[in-house]
Design goal:
Strand order of the largest sheet: 3-2-1-4-5
GO molecular function: DNA binding; enzyme activator activity; single-stranded DNA helicase activity
CATH topology of the domain at 100-199: post-AAA+ oligomerization domain-like
Low-confidence stretches: 177-191, 193-203
Pfam family, one: MgsA_C
CATH superfamily of the domain at 100-199: DNA polymerase III clamp loader subunits, C-terminal domain
Order of helices and strands: HHHHHHHHHEHEHEHEHEHH
Oligomer: single chain
Structural class: alpha/beta
CATH class of the domain at 100-199: Mainly Alpha
Helix content: 40-55%
Strand content: 5-15%
Number of strands: 5
Radius of gyration: 28 Å
Largest sheet: 5 strands, parallel
Protein name: MgsA AAA+ ATPase C-terminal domain-containing protein
Shape: globular
Mean pLDDT: 80
């Protein structure tokens, strides 16, 4: 029934005219409603099934109305064969029969104590939007993508949301959070309060990454034809959103090493060649020279990044390097975590729970870590970044925000 994929109902009508059993035609149309229409119009299989049931009740010759209705509906609705991703997944799973199901997805009723089964599972419906960044694949399959939503019909409306959640989940996994816990062979008493806190914290990682990405792009006025540079692209959280927003422009993604570059290029292989980001493996110190050699004539309309400066030993030198990348009309938008303002462990304790002197020493010891002037992770604050950018002649706007 390839004619349906081309919005041409003539074949079904020809089969009916040739004496083909209408029930056989309905069977083929029910298959087509899922195989060739799928999520582009989830209602298609409902309509065809209803027409088939109506045909069985009415019979011939009036049942031809229902046959015609189902035929015309399929011929004119949006089409997508993204459901074929199921067979790709099935093929991979058959080849990976020895791969372990993540422990947090195993039956907690039987082996929770002995093997830690079910520990770390996060119940999606308990969180906003009923979704969390949680791993559902064995370790050997993590990062693989099977379902690729099309831009047709209903599916086109969810494609962007699916992509953003997938990117947030991948980023959370790459950065070491939201990963399935390993199976344990011993057990002891469980602190339920601590376990709930850990689950809540891990579940919020993907959501927070998505919010940070949204906040970065909300501070821009990106046009379809703009050229964007994503600094510290990592797993591509910002890169893929940039690709979506500049279909007529271009995206350059800077990563730290060849391993990250290969991972990003592998993900980009699913995109049309002209839409793929240009991936550059370079440190921030070498980036101006690398870009001068590979993209000398490129002028970036926006430069974006997340946690680019946090681990740079000398923030002033790093800012000077950044300034060389920004053209006169260009805009730099960064989201930086400030480690010295991170949550303190002692605040989870009450001074009445432990000896007062011990509590005071704990407070002093932890605060001393964040007051270490020789530690480049914590010896700076928002004001220091502002001064660094002003010193190279850039106008600066800073929006301190706290993510919980």
């Amino acid at each position: 029934m390839d004619s349906f994929a081309q919005n041409q109902p003539q074949l079904a009508f020809s089969e009916a005219h040739a004496g083909e059993d209408p029930r056989f035609i309905f069977r083929r149309m029910l298959i087509l409603a899922s195989e060739d229409v799928g999520l582009a119009d989830p209602n298609a299989v409902v309509v065809v099934n209803a027409c088939a049931e109506a045909f069985d009740r009415v019979g011939m010759p009036e049942g031809r109305y229902h046959l015609a209705q189902a035929t015309l509906y399929l011929a004119n609705t949006a089409k997508s064969n993204s459901v074929m991703g199921f067979f790709d997944a099935l093929s991979v799973v058959e080849k990976e029969k020895e791969a372990e199901v993540p422990p947090h997805l195993k039956d907690a009723n039987r082996d929770n104590k002995g093997f830690g089964h079910g520990v770390g599972y996060i119940y999606p419906h308990a969180y906003r939007e009923h979704w969390v960044a949680q791993q559902y694949l064995p370790a050997s399959l993590q990062g693989q993508v099977f379902y690729q939503p099309s831009q047709q019909g209903f599916e086109g409306g969810i494609a962007s949301s699916v992509a953003r959640r997938r990117e947030a989940q991948l980023t959370a996994s790459v950065e070491g959070v939201g990963i399935a816990p390993t199976e344990v062979l011993t057990y002891g008493t469980t602190d339920r309060a601590t376990e709930r806190w850990l689950q809540r914290t891990l579940s919020q990682v993907g959501e927070q990454l998505g919010r940070i990405s949204d906040r970065i792009f909300s501070l821009t006025q990106i046009q379809r034809h703009h050229v964007i540079l994503d600094l510290n692209a990592g797993s591509g959280l910002l890169t893929w959103e940039a690709v979506r927003q500049v279909p007529e422009g271009g995206v350059y993604a800077c990563v730290r090493n060849s391993q990250e570059a290969s991972a990003l290029e592998e993900q980009a292989a699913a995109l049309p060649e002209l839409r793929r980001p240009f991936v550059v493996a370079s440190t921030l110190a070498e980036l101006p020279n690398v870009l001068a050699a590979s993209a000398a004539d490129v002028r970036f309309d926006y430069i974006i990044g997340r946690n680019l400066l946090t681990q740079e030993p000398d923030k002033n030198i790093a800012v000077q390097k950044l300034a060389k990348l920004i053209p006169k009309s260009g805009v730099l938008v960064l989201a930086e975590s400030v480690p010295r303002h991170t949550q303190r462990i002692y605040r989870w304790l009450e001074d009445k729970q432990i000896d007062a002197d011990l509590y005071e020493r704990l407070v002093m010891a932890e605060e001393a870590i964040y007051a270490d002037s020789s530690d480049t992770m914590v010896n700076w604050d928002v004001v220091d970044l502002q001064k660094a950018f002003l010193s190279v002649g850039l106008s600066v706007q800073i929006f301190p925000e706290r993510f919980h």
